[in-house]
Design a protein that fits this description.
The complex is a heterodimer of chains A (180) and B (383). Chain A is mainly alpha-helical and 180 residues long. Chain A contains eight helices and no strands. Chain A is 73% helix and 0% strand. In chain A, α6 runs antiparallel to α7 and α6 packs across α8. With 383 residues, chain B is α+β, with helices and mostly antiparallel strands. Helices cover 18% and strands 36% of the residues of chain B. The chains are: A mainly alpha (180), B alpha+beta (383). Chains A and B meet through α2, α3, α5, α6 and α8 of A and α1, α2, α4, α7 and β16 of B.
């Protein structure tokens, strides 16, 4: 299959080729799910939210100013949808709590060295570091492309990645001081 | 460690690729119309019906499960109401009792498969805690500062106490899971009542329900003090905290951290000033550290933090890459090290070096002027 650039695929979608959007989805859906997971804390909700992001993005694709920047644009859309999701969730929790006469529970991030626990740790990293990790481990694209998605220079990207890994190491080392 | 972390990260990211084809098909099926033209305000109408619910019934299953739990809990509470004495002791009473204890000794184990892969022994008395950690480190928390020393007695980490504002040890070690969770939580009654023990069972927080099965806490029926907390995971692993209160109390000196070992280097830093060269002594293979303080920020609570750049130079004249330590607070020490992407395996002489260091930023009487102390060591490749 011919490998089209993001910009070409965007143009093809706008021209009516839905399959081209599927290829953009293949490229970026895992990354968008990871970003959504940072907010939702569970995979099923992250998958739901990521679907929502792509559907909304599809509707608004014609409004994109720079099709070359689809990666950065979809990341930005994901962050926006995550914010909306968080606000909706808070309202829902408050309503549920009022109905039940209890205070809303607060999430307690886990600190274990298990995949789901490591994901919870990643969700606690600063956004720049988190995004660098997501892109590095999920997208498998060229460094330049990864830098464009994250909005960092090449050296800035690798510094963020290094900081992320160092912070994860520190969290793992402190794991024992927090139970569970 | 780097390879292990890489493996762990690859595994952690794997689920984001799961169900991709099914989700893709659901998305494609929902793309009824083409994208809206620029300036349009049209919103999707189909998005609600394309979700992961269809593939693994995630949310519906969770809702159904939650309903079953609620019904089960209501039935259970109703049933327990008719049992003999002890059944109506609310968890809130246990929390109150443990808040009054000023001495406790504990063991903590994490089981993974057939091994305990992490563990510690801890003591808590008069607001101070000591933990002997499996790797030989010792952690001290005196209610003001949390400090971690390695087996050589060298301070490797220093940060704020885990017991601010009178927070109790049970709150710390349960990350608030066992208390302060609202009226409903504190009113929870035992799930099981024996002759000697009451057993309280807590469902996991929704954010943890994918991997955690339940938390059960065994409480002495007369003392109303917890003796065991077990966190059961869905794969059969578990974490176990064993508490006892009758071990001989440790003397006050036991809770005091060791005298600080001298720093390997020390220098004065001015915020946003030039890079400062600090001589390193007593750390074989290292000669100099270049340090710069910048990036001051103040959070909503008024807490100040900085970025600290550190570059090390070896006795042979080789420079490490420059490490940027962010969110570094005054009067704290951080345990830092060479990262997997730090290029430390690629020194010009081809020699492997793993550098561990702990900078400590001390305020002075002059605003924006700090003293930095650096404790550091170089390790070779393990055989």
């Amino acid at each position: 299959m011919e490998e089209h650039s993001d910009a070409e695929l965007v143009q093809m979608v706008i021209a009516g080729d839905k399959n081209a959007y599927g290829r953009l989805y293949d490229r970026y859906a895992p990354l968008v799910r990871a970003i959504c997971y940072d907010r939702t804390g569970n995979l099923a909700d992250a998958q739901d939210l990521a679907q929502d992001v792509f559907l909304r993005a599809y509707e608004r694709l014609g409004q994109m100013r720079d099709p070359e920047c689809f990666g950065a644009w979809i990341v930005s859309a994901a962050r926006h949808c995550c914010g909306e999701w968080g606000r909706r969730k808070s309202r829902q929790q408050r309503r549920d709590a009022e109905r039940a006469g209890i205070e809303p529970a607060t999430a307690t991030p886990s600190e274990r060295v298990r995949p789901e626990e490591l994901r919870a740790m990643i969700a606690r990293l600063p956004e720049k570091e988190r995004l660098a990790l997501h892109v590095f481990y999920l997208n498998g694209q060229s460094a330049d492309e990864a830098c464009r998605i994250v909005g960092l220079s090449r050296s800035g990207f690798y510094r963020a990645l290094e900081r992320a890994r160092e912070q994860l190491r520190t969290l793992l080392e402190r794991e024992l001081e927090n139970i569970p | 460690m780097n390879e292990q972390l890489d493996d762990n990260l690859n595994e952690a990211y794997q689920p984001f690729r799961q169900n991709h084809e099914v989700l893709r098909a659901a998305l494609m099926a929902s793309l009824v119309d083409g994208p809206a033209p620029a300036g349009s305000k049209r919103w999707p109408v189909a998005w609600q019906r394309l979700t992961a619910r269809a593939i693994d019934s995630g949310r519906m299953t969770r809702v159904a499960a939650a309903a079953i739990i609620v019904v089960g809990a209501l039935v259970g509470i109703h049933h327990l109401g008719g049992l003999p004495d002890g059944t109506s002791v609310a968890w809130g009473h246990v929390v109150t009792h443990i808040g009054e204890v000023d001495y406790v000794h504990m063991y903590y184990f994490k089981s993974r498969g057939s091994n305990f892969y992490r563990h510690f022994e801890g003591w808590h008395a008069h607001g101070k805690t000591v933990q002997h950690v499996h790797n030989g480190d010792t952690v001290y928390d005196d209610g003001q500062r949390w400090q971690r020393f390695n087996s050589a007695g060298i301070l490797v980490q220093r940060t704020e106490s885990a017991f601010p504002d009178g927070r109790t040890f049970v709150e710390k070690f349960s990350i608030n899971r066992l208390s302060d969770r609202g009226a409903q939580h504190n009113k929870q009654v035992p799930a099981r009542v024996g002759d000697d023990f009451l057993i309280y069972t807590f469902a996991p927080d929704p954010t943890e329900s994918q991997w955690m099965d339940a938390i059960s806490i065994t409480v002495g029926r007369i003392s109303l003090l917890p003796v065991q907390m077990k966190i059961a995971l869905k794969n059969g692993d578990y974490d176990l905290l064993i508490l006892d209160y009758d071990a001989p109390e440790k003397p006050a000196g036991f809770f005091e951290p060791p005298a600080m070992t001298p720093a390997n280097g020390q220098g004065a830093l001015l915020l946003d000033g030039s890079e400062v060269m600090i001589d390193i002594t007593g750390a074989p293979d290292l000669k100099t550290a270049l340090v710069r303080l910048h990036g001051k920020s103040v959070d909503d609570s008024g807490a100040v933090s900085f970025s600290l750049n550190i570059t090390f130079i070896t006795e042979d004249g080789y420079r490490s890459n420059t490490m940027d330590i962010e969110d570094f607070k005054p009067d704290e020490a951080k345990m830092c090290g060479t990262g997997g992407l730090g290029g430390f395996e690629g020194w010009p002489d081809g020699k492997y070096r793993n550098l561990r260091f702990s900078p400590w930023l001390k305020p002075t009487d002059t605003e924006d002027r700090y003293i930095v102390e650096i404790r550091c060591r170089v390790f070779g490749k393990p055989d």
